[in-house]
Every structure is written in C-alpha cells, then in structure tokens.
Design goal:
With 307 residues, the protein is of the alpha/beta class. It has 2 domains: 211 residues, P-loop containing nucleotide triphosphate hydrolases (Rossmann fold, 3-Layer(aba) Sandwich), CATH 3.40.50.300; 67 residues, Reverse transcriptase/Diguanylate cyclase domain (Alpha-Beta Plaits, 2-Layer Sandwich). The chain contains 11 helices and 15 strands. Helix 4 crosses helix 5.
Length: 307
C-alpha cells in the first residue's frame, strides 16, 4: 500500500508561549484535492510551513509520501511544490523569464517551461511582463512555478485570494482537474467554504490550531442530519409544533430550519410535519429538504465547541 501524500503525527508549533498548531494528525490521500479549512489565524499557514520545512515543529512529525520532513528535508522538498501568499515575481520580467530563473536553480531542462505554462494555460502569455498580468494570471504563474520538476504534491495557500468571481470560478475548475491531468495531489488551504466544497474531495477543518474534522467530503456529508426549511404564516406556532415533534429548530427572518435525527427519512418527516402544521391551522408557504453541505459540517463542529 502506497504512503499518503501527507501524514502528520501530533504536529505542534508554539510562538512565545502561544500554541499556534496543537497536536495536528492529518492524512492527505494521494491524488486527492484536500481542502484545508479554517478561519484566518486558525493555524493553516503555520501548518503548511512545517510541511514545507520552512518552520521546525515544536513537537510532532510530518511526512510527505513517507519521507520524514524533519529527518530528510531535502528529499521531502523534492516531493512538493508550493504557492504561498507572496508571489515574489520580478514585474519587469516576463512570466517565462521569471519561471526560467527557478528552472535554472533546479537544474531542469528548458522544455519544462513550456510544459508548466501549458498545464496552467498560460503559454500565450509567457512573453508578457508580469507587471501587466491580472491577479488571476499571477496566481496561475505561481502554480506553474510550483509545478516545475513535476512534484507529486502541490501546496497552495489561499489561491483564490483577491480574485473576482470569474477568476475564482476559473481557479476552481482548474484545481479540480489538476490531479487527473498531472497525477499530483493538491493541498489547498482556504477560509471559503463554498469554494472548497466545489473543489475538494477531502477536507480537514482546523480551529485554534487543532484539527477538529477530517475525512472524505462525501462521507462527511452523509453523516449530517437532514434538515427541512419551512416558511409559514405563523412561524412562532410552527416553531413550537416542530419542537414538540422532536425537531431541533433554528429560526431566522426567512423561516425555520428544522433538523432531524441523522437516520430519519427526510421525505417522510417533511410530509408528516406539513400535515401537522396544516391540521393546526398554519398556512404553509413552503417546506423543502435542505441539501447537505460543507457549511453544515463546519456548523456542527462549531456547535460542539470546536470553534
């Protein structure tokens, strides 16, 4: 059985007595798109820097494809390419010239430039000055630089930061297709739940330096309790009736969200609740099953006191 792309054991890092990362044990399967989620300041970037060998952990360990980062940093570095927040490009040079500087440092053949520019769909812009690039083009150029030498793992820290809606959609589609196109594993950190939900196959949620949820996204969604959205003319009475029938209820200005037990049949529960509301003389404008989502996983972790 092959080693996972990333495996950490009780990985921790403190700064002047403050615990930034606290006992993180995470597993990133090979050829997955792993969404690393958490609020700003949760410890995501610190964790990534330890994976890349840029920071030494206070305790614990990290391995990339079975290579221990602490014991053989150089061998581990050959397994990974990274895009962190700072691009570090020379604006007066072209995209291709910027990449060529890194290519030469890595001792790679010039054909590698064309390969990575093709993968990120930037071949036509390789001769343009980086100063004239849009933010989305700079992000793609950063990913191209991370891909030089075809590392089996790409670590991308907030790759959609600052992009407009069209740029975010393009980046999402690009990242989702990368494992199939290149065979690489993608570890992407973000605080944007919606983007990760549409991109990732697996997720890990970090809170105050601790990994509180991890797993395959589809399997995690399957564990969520089904929810019903209810809009009616008397939300106060509808709320009381739903609670009396064993639902947990969240009330907003738009209506009610009634949560069932995890194994309840949502269709049968919706029909029974609708019938009870009508029999009580409450006019029901709508009642619908809410799709399971990554937001629900995040919210459940929050209610358990993780956040």
């Amino acid at each position: 059985m092959s080693a996972p792309a990333v495996r950490t054991h009780a990985l921790s890092r403190s700064f002047k007595g403050r615990q930034a990362v606290d006992g993180v044990s995470m597993t990133v399967p090979a050829r997955s798109v792993y969404g690393f989620l958490g609020r700003n300041g949760a410890g995501k970037t610190t964790t990534l820097k330890m994976l890349l060998g840029l920071l030494k952990p206070t305790s614990g360990s990290a391995a990339l494809f079975g290579v221990d980062v602490g014991k053989d940093r150089l061998a581990a570095a050959r397994k990974v390419g990274a895009l962190l927040e700072a691009h570090g490009f020379y604006g007066n040079l072209s995209g291709g010239e910027n990449l060529d500087l890194t290519r030469a440092l890595l001792g790679l053949k010039r054909a590698e430039l064309d390969r990575v520019l093709d993968v990120v769909e930037m071949r036509a812009h390789g001769d343009r000055r980086v100063a004239d690039y849009s933010l989305g083009m700079r992000q793609r150029l950063g990913i191209a630089r991370a891909m030089l030498g075809a590392p089996p793992l790409l670590v991308l820290d907030e790759p959609t930061n600052g992009l407009d809606p069209d740029g975010i959609a393009d980046m999402r589609q690009f990242l989702r297709a990368l494992p199939e196109r290149t065979g690489a594993t993608i570890l992407v950190s973000s605080h944007l739940l919606g983007e990760i939900e549409q991109t990732a196959t697996h997720v890990g949620i970090l809170s105050e330096g601790r990994l509180v949820v991890e797993g395959e996204l589809a399997a995690l969604k399957a564990t969520l309790a089904p929810e019903l959205f209810i809009d009616a003319d008397d939300l106060e009475r509808a709320d009381a009736l739903a609670r009396a029938r064993g639902f947990s209820v969240l009330r907003t200005a738009e209506g009610l969200t009634a949560r069932l037990a995890p194994r309840d049949d949502a269709r049968a529960a919706a029909a029974a609740l609708n019938r009870a509301l009508v029999e009580a003389g409450i006019a029901v404008f709508s009642i619908a099953h809410k799709a399971r989502s990554l937001e629900g996983i995040y919210r459940d972790a929050s209610k358990q006191g993780a956040f």
